[in-house]
């Protein structure tokens, strides 16, 4: 789990005093500003008597941005900005002190909600607070968003594994993705009408794809389920489900923090899988890699994909030695610092460099890019 930012004394006073500190300390910025806006969204509704009268309280937020937060936005923000103990206190105050229970207790709120990735993350972060009726509705929302992600990624996976286009071989039949525009124009130039200056395409041409022949492979996805990695957990589950449907690939999915859970049996049902994920805790990467290593059947036909921020809670040498042993036996090790649509990496670069020296490949990829990378390695 990544270390939480150290705030200097000035930032601490800004968070304590809120807007009242602006004339002397300035507005601040960065992580501290985000923290202040999240705290203002919740505690700024206190009235003079401290009883939660939003209309009469001090407007302590830094600017107008905080007031525009929705409940899902706020939930996602605090899980990103604060450590677990602070998040638990903020959620408890939101529910018990201020009665902000829209997302987790009121079915009609979920019924009005627009399914999207941000709402999915908020649901997964608060599902432990939901009663059975709300949880059932939340599951339906999760299913809808996951289905949309699956449809998008499945197309990318099919494209990655469908084979490579041959620039020299053409066919008169094919899909739109195989359309050979340049060759079609060149071979239909004789049908150009000089008067209208229009080209009539009488026969389109398409690139020929050579299908990839897959030998049996094992792909072991190890995904860090600490709070900061939720986006990667979601996309790892969807990616695993897409790979599960491919012939010749045996897919494993293991989620870990300081403990680990083997979710391979649920890979075919990413909704159920995500509803089981427990976010939070520390990070014992070496334990997960050791568990995966024990399940490798044919070392030279195995790929271990480690999705983590690489902030290891165990001695680093354990993980480095394990990666070195895996690559020495012929297995491939890929470390991903991010696995979501943005692939915006935040990770321990020093440890990542040591893993590269031990034989791993480390980078940041979207799910579609991972599918392409795997297609190249598995053939």
Automatic annotation (TrEMBL):
Residues 216-375 form the VWFA domain. Coiled coil: none annotated. InterPro entries: LolB (IPR050458), Uncharacterised_CoxE (IPR008912), VWF_A (IPR002035), vWFA_dom_sf (IPR036465). Pfam families: VWA_CoxE. SMART domains: VWA (SM00327). This is VWA domain-containing protein. It comes from Inhella crocodyli.
